[in-house]
Amino acid sequence: MFEYHGWLSTFETADAGVIQSTLKELNKPYPASAENVNGRLHVSFSGNPNRDMGQLKNIVSYLCGLKLKLSGCVYINNANSERYNRFDIVKIIEDVVKEMEDQNFTFEETRQLFE
What we know:
Blueprint: E1 2-10, H1 16-26, E2 32-37, E3 40-47, H2 55-65, E4 71-78, E5 86-93, E6 96-106, H3 107-113
């Protein structure tokens, strides 16, 4: 299982409807949204295909290619990797992408939060 959850925002002006339409096409059949809220564009998306099918790379490339100074993060868990019990992070600051390992967020810690 390949799981991802992303959210980004910016103060730059953009057509949220066009972005949402493109995101939904790139992320089909998983949820994606783009809306203007209090002067900020908010983008969110998630998915859990059986394996990495390229949606996430396409989404991040599309969004950063818009040059909207988007900032946020995407949490990724790949059950087929050596880090199957941890999430990795794609951190995006003003359209610059950096990949990093989350040292804290594990499935065990998450279960403890909700016990």
